[in-house]
Recover the amino acids of this structure.
């Protein structure tokens, strides 16, 4: 059974490329444009991994992960946060929210695949 | 690059353009001091561009934007203050990012010196405090420790993993890491340590109590193996012992992070909208056009059938078709604000270059018009705005001497009027100098020495090709290239251009455009056996022509209405009927009466453009097919109004 991954980012082009890469590697992909959109789309869906940007309108990545982790169905869902070196301070907030995996932007599609493979069997 | 990637790159181009516009908007708003700049949004723009550009391997964009982002980061954290010099620099950087993006997507190359210069200037805002953060901070401190379990010494790596209690709760599954490790090499031996497991009373199923000792055979370097466990550094102790070695290093937890206050303000910038390629919309509109014609034909047949039920259902159908037509046309409507939004920057740059202080007032940015027109009107408008700043608005000293405020005002306005849209560019400058224009025109032989011209006629001279009264040629305007181009662009859109000016008070240039280029409600009239269509939006009223053959004017409730006799204009053969009718049309402030034989009533029409062969045909704007299959010509009202006005001013008979 293929694994489902959700990608949350406000950049449509980034979503497009990540989604393309993941689909190419055989994953199912759900896209969301911000935290609020992601929570709405998650309802009842089984996902094996969430990839989320930090800086987003409406509901940012930190807030989103906090909400996600409150839901028992997603308590153990791994989350990869997308960040930049300029956001070191936010990393701590992310860790407090329950995110442990970070991928630094800008990244190459192959890097993303590597990160995903570590978290999803 | 495969097609998917090319499509994604298109998305990126569009996206970066929007983000750069947003940056510009924020910076300009900040410069004019009218609001507290949204520094977080500003940062996010640069941040998103950099992130996405990296994904496409646009290294140049990433490198340059990184510097800009670092400055913006300090700015939003309050480490440096926002001031005009910084704002100007950021605007330049924003332009450069745009140029880099375009260059990488097939545009013209950008000289490296520009970027280097900007980067150097940016550096000033990054010192004296810490320089820009390195691209990937890593901390690693070798710590000698005792290896647990089996020790190295063999020709493979030895890994000691001790997972923290919370690792599962953090979404990290130890098994997936070991699985991934297995993909990077060969796991020779694995031993699970469960000494940490508590008794059943204290056992928490959500906690992880396990440790692993792994013998691992791989060509990977130590860094590469460490990287595999990057994500669990905070939740696990990982010791990696190289082959043939007795020294163990511990992977070190992330470097200490400094606290920083959080204050992200989110603005819902993304309207929930759908992007559709415009060709698809065009196709849809074309089809709807055909539908309209087919509907009209059906209704004619239904009327002729004298079956009430058929008539009713045909009428229903036609109403639905009309609804679809209106909805479809609305799909193409965009606010003119899209064009207006570029002008704060244009005005700022031009005013700076000329050393003038100019305030731009924008009104009616919500006014909607057809997308294709928005694209075509942008350049003429830019030219008019530049002209107004350069020639219209006087230098500050002159203004003060004339008792006006030193700061000039330029007004851009848009509003709907009689089925069209009116766009005004108004300045409070010195106004057009009739004397000088006339003198120049005489010098250039455009006007004969004893020819007398009315004021509107004199103003229209500036629309002649190559005409300029400017004494010196500036970078921006004054070469006389332009107003004639503006005029022809407006003509091409079936619009009119009017100029009003008052010495010492300023000039208003007014463009009137029809709302759409595709489908109109038409008013059918007959001339002999031919049917012509007048756009209904421009029809004011219809009256019977008083029996006064040869009259060129009509007294319409004490208003002089110039008449255009379509019979003679279109050279219709055969005698005119005893009774003729006048269709009163209006566009903007111009009015005229079109003399026709018979009035036939309203009809929905799809405008089919005329082929190039008919370019020189005067007074006809397009053609359409009637429900009966007959071809009808669509009257070009703006052109006829222009004709009437010119003849009226010249005192010649119209039509």
């Amino acid at each position: 059974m293929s694994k489902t991954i959700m990608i949350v980012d406000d950049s449509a082009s980034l979503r497009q490329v990540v989604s393309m890469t993941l689909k190419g590697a055989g994953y199912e992909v759900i896209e969301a444009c911000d935290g609020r959109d992601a929570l709405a789309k998650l309802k009842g869906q089984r996902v094996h991994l969430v990839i989320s940007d930090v800086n987003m309108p409406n509901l940012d990545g930190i807030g989103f992960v906090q909400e996600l982790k409150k839901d028992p169905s997603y308590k153990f869902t791994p989350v990869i946060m997308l960040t930049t070196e300029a956001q070191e301070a936010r990393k701590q907030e992310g860790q407090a929210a329950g995110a442990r995996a970070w991928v630094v932007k800008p990244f190459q599609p192959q890097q993303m695949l590597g990160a995903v493979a570590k978290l999803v069997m | 690059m495969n097609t998917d990637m090319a499509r994604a790159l298109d998305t990126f181009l569009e996206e970066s353009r929007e983000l750069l516009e947003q940056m510009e908007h924020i910076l300009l708003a900040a410069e004019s001091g009218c609001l507290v700049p949204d520094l977080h949004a500003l940062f996010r723009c640069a941040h998103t561009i950099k992130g996405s550009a990296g994904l496409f391997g646009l290294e140049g964009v990433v490198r340059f934007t990184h510097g800009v982002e670092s400055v913006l980061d300090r700015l939003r954290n309050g480490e440096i203050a926002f001031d005009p010099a910084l704002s100007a620099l950021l605007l330049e950087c924003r332009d450069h990012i745009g140029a880099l993006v375009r260059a990488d997507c097939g545009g013209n190359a950008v000289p490296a010196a520009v970027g280097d210069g900007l980067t150097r200037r940016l550096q000033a805002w990054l010192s004296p405090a810490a320089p820009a953060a390195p691209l990937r901070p890593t901390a690693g401190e070798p710590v000698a420790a005792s290896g647990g379990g089996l020790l190295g010494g063999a020709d493979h790596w030895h890994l000691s993993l001790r997972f923290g209690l919370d690792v599962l709760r953090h979404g990290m599954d130890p098994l997936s890491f070991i699985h991934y490790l297995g993909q990077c090499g060969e796991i020779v031996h694995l031993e699970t340590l469960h000494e940490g497991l508590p008794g059943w009373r204290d056992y928490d199923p959500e906690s992880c109590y396990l440790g692993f000792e792994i013998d691992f055979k791989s060509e990977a370097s130590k860094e590469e193996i460490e990287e595999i466990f990057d994500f669990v550094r905070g939740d696990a102790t990982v010791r990696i012992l190289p082959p043939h070695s007795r020294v163990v290093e511990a992977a070190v937890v992330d470097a200490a992070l400094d606290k920083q206050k959080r204050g992200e303000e989110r603005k819902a910038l993304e309207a929930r909208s759908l992007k559709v390629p415009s060709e698809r919309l065009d196709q849809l509109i074309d089809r709807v056009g055909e539908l309209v014609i087919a509907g009209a034909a059906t209704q004619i047949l239904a009327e002729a059938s004298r079956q009430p039920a058929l008539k009713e259902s045909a009428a229903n159908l036609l109403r639905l078709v009309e609804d679809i037509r209106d909805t479809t046309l609305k799909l193409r409507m965009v606010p003119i604000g899209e064009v207006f939004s570029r002008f704060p920057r244009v005005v700022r740059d031009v005013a700076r270059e000329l050393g003038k202080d100019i305030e731009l007032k924008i009104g009616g940015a919500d006014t909607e018009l057809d997308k294709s027109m928005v694209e075509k009107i942008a350049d003429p408008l830019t030219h008019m705005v530049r002209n107004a700043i350069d020639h219209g608005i006087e230098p500050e000293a002159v203004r003060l001497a004339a008792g006006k405020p030193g700061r000039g005002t330029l007004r851009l306005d848009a509003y709907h009027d009689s089925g069209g849209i009116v766009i005004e560019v108004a300045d409070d400058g010195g106004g057009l100098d009739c004397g000088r224009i006339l003198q120049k025109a005489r010098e250039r032989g455009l006007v004969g020495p004893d020819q007398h011209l009315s004021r509107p006629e004199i103003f229209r001279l500036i629309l002649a090709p190559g005409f300029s009264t400017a004494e010196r040629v500036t970078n921006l305007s004054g070469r006389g290239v332009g107003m004639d181009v503006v005029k022809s662009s407006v003509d091409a859109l079936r619009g009119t251009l009017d100029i009003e000016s008052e010495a010492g008070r300023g000039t208003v240039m007014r463009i009137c455009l029809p709302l759409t280029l595709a489908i109109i409600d038409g008013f059918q009239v007959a001339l002999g056996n031919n049917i012509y269509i007048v756009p209904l939006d421009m029809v004011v009223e219809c009256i019977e022509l008083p029996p006064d053959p040869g009259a060129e004017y009509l007294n319409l409730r004490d208003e002089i209405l110039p008449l255009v006799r379509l019979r003679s204009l279109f050279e219709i053969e055969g005698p005119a009927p005893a009774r003729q009718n006048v269709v009163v049309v209006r566009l903007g402030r111009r009015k005229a009466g079109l003399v026709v034989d018979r009035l036939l009533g309203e009809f929905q029409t799809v405008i089919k453009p005329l082929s190039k062969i008919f370019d020189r045909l005067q007074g006809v704007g397009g053609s359409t097919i009637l429900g009966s299959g007959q071809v009808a010509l669509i009257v070009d009202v703006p052109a006829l109004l222009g004709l009437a006005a010119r003849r009226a001013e010249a005192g010649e008979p119209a039509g």
